[in-house]
Amino acid sequence: MSNPQHRDADFERTYRRLAPELERQVARLIRAPRPVIEEACQVAWARLVGAEQPLAARAVPGWLLTTAAREAVHALRAQRREVPLERDGEVIELPARDPGPDGIAELRGRLAEIRRLPVRQQRVVWLHGLGYEYSEIAERTGDSRRTVERQLLRAKRTLARLAA
Known about the structure:
This protein has helices at residues 4-29, 34-50, 60-81, 100-115, 119-129, 134-141, 145-163; strands spanning 86-87, 90-91. It is mainly alpha-helical. The chain has two domains: 4-81, no CATH class; 101-163, Orthogonal Bundle (Arc Repressor Mutant, subunit A), CATH 1.10.10. A two-stranded antiparallel ribbon has the order 1-2. The longest helix has 26 residues, at 4-29.
């Protein structure tokens, strides 16, 4: 086993050498605010430190760039799903969404149709409706991305048949 102090010193040198360039490269690849880029890079470094298997020295820069870029994209997608509740320090008032009696009846009908789907399809429909990407649904359910696509397609076909 290698000496932990030696490993820490190697990591520190690597970090000082690669960190500024990593941020520049990620910023070139992904259009995102600076804090998103910085956070994505820090997540990549943290994953490198916590990796079970050490990477070859020549693979580290590419691995960091790929990991940080993916993390930045993931963070941007998450931000798009979030609704800001304040702007310039003032709370944004959201308009009430009152569908009325007919709208409520229609929504209850749609919910009843979803409940007629198999449990597996219900799960992916709900996750997709909440804004999760196929790959995120696959990660949560333990299915492959292709399986998620198939389950959603089957669910949509069944719901279309029920609505007709």
